[in-house]
Amino acid sequence: MLENILNVVQIIVSILLITAILLQAPEGGMSPVFGGGGETFRSRRSIEKFLIAATIILAVILAILSVVLLFPQFN
Known about the structure:
- This protein has helices spanning 2-24, 45-68.
- By secondary structure, it is mainly α.
- Helix 1 runs antiparallel to helix 2.
- The protein starts with a helix and ends in a 7-residue tail after the last helix.
């Protein structure tokens, strides 16, 4: 039961991490969809800082979940 919950949380964190990374890509990804093209001056520094912090936090959570799921008591 706990393993299933952790697997679902790991999938959700993975999707959020992929989204956060794609939103940061200046030339490609989903960045131009939200007005993040690299040809104009960026005045939304707070959004960029939030995306960087969210990426780091999500990557750490994903790494911790991956290590926790390696332990035999969850299998």
